[in-house]
Amino acid sequence: MYLGVRPWGVVKLSRKRVGFGEDLLKLLKRFSLRELQVATDKFSSRLIIGRGGFGKVCKGRLADGTLVAIKRLKDERTQGGELQFQTEVKMISLAVHRNLLRLRGFCMTPTERLLVYPYMANGSVASCLRERPDTQEPLDWPIRKRIALGCARGLACLHEHCDPKIIHRDVKASNILLDEEFEAVVGDFGLAKLMDYKDTHVTTAVRGTIGHIAPEYLSTGKASPKTDVFGYGVMLLELITGQRAFDLARLANADDVMLLDWVKGLLREKKLDTLVDADLNGSYINDEVEQMMQVALLCAQGTPSERPKMSEVVRMLEGDGLAERWDEWQKEGMFTQQFRPNYWIIADSTDNLCPDELSGPR
Fold first, then answer.
1. 84 confidence band (pLDDT: 50, 70, 90)
2. Is 247 a catalytic residue?
3. Which residues form the Protein kinase domain (predicted)?
């Protein structure tokens, strides 16, 4: 299905190799607040390139000319705030892979918490799909295939090669960044949590984005790697369709507001051409679109145990085992089962927030 893309190496940092404490912080550059103020013209509003529940992201230029993205977190002068920040910095440092956003450094003062990342020249998958200027070419089908595979490899690293393992918890198109070569880089570990060796699930307050949240996570507050697999499946649908995962505008055509439900409905009516992003102008291979759609639906199943691992997703995208798994799924009648979670009934802290606000730290 996919052109050969060489696998990128993984550097595995564990507690055995790197002390899970101050030693890990020493591997990163600790910037002074003055350095980052100069780099961003005192965090000028004209340099803001993103914002969310965590605070803002500014584009900056370091003294050596390097472009960076600086995440300036909201005021965290609360009990335990400094320790929480250090824990997040250490956690991010655990994940080193070509398809994961690498932390360059950080800054911590009594009043500021800042994270410094490489600047991603081509923004996010979401911005390229839905917010690109007229002068920018749309993502072509080969690039979308590479994005799907690169993102899968990055998540597989988080789940299976980091020690301790990491759950992202907010996999979506706006959190998949694109470097100058349009290589996918999984970003934003603001919601990520470390997985304890003894636990298969981590119970937390539900944080995420409507349309991407796995049903079991929404109803129980328990996240697992399969939570990320669900979000990844929805992200694949975004890549194929160019649509938002949750869009009230679809109601105007009596369509489902949830992208997953909208896609399933059109597939039952055998309207594949209607699903594919019009920006592709027909320049895609039907079989490849169908295969990516199959992977997406396998990932977005309602039952966590039925979803593949991300390492299995990588193999399926590379052409290994998809046909067998899809045939098995169809024989079990899984596609005919209608799953429609009610995002408006389940009571949680996100009840009165719009989808963007639900994303929390991004």
1. low
2. no
3. 43-330
Is the pLDDT assigned to residue 66 strictly greater than 60?
yes
Euclidean distance between CA atoms 94 and 190, whole angstroms: 14
β-strands 105-108, 29-30: how paired? parallel
Alpha-carbon gap, residue 257 to 249, rounded angstroms:
7
For the chain, give every residue range classified as CATH 3.30.200.20. 14-118
Query: Do residues 71 and 127 lie in contact, with contact meaning Cβ atoms separated by under 8 Å?
Result: no
Instruction: Given the residues 41, 134, 170, 228, select the one marked as catalytic.
Output: 170
pTM summary value: 0.81
Q: Would you say domain 14-118 falls under CATH 3.30.720.210? A: no
> Which CATH number applies to 125-358?
1.10.510.10
CATH 1.10.510.10 residue spans of the chain: 125-358
109-131 pLDDT, tens digit per residue, is: 888 889 999 999 899 999 999 88
pLDDT tens for residues 158-212?
999 887 788 888 899 989 999 999 999 998 765 566 554 344 444 445 666 777 7
SS (H, E, C) 287-313: HHHHHHHHHHHHHCCCCHHHCCCHHHH
Asked if residue 245 lies in contact with residue 211, where contact means CB atoms within 8 angstroms, the answer is: yes
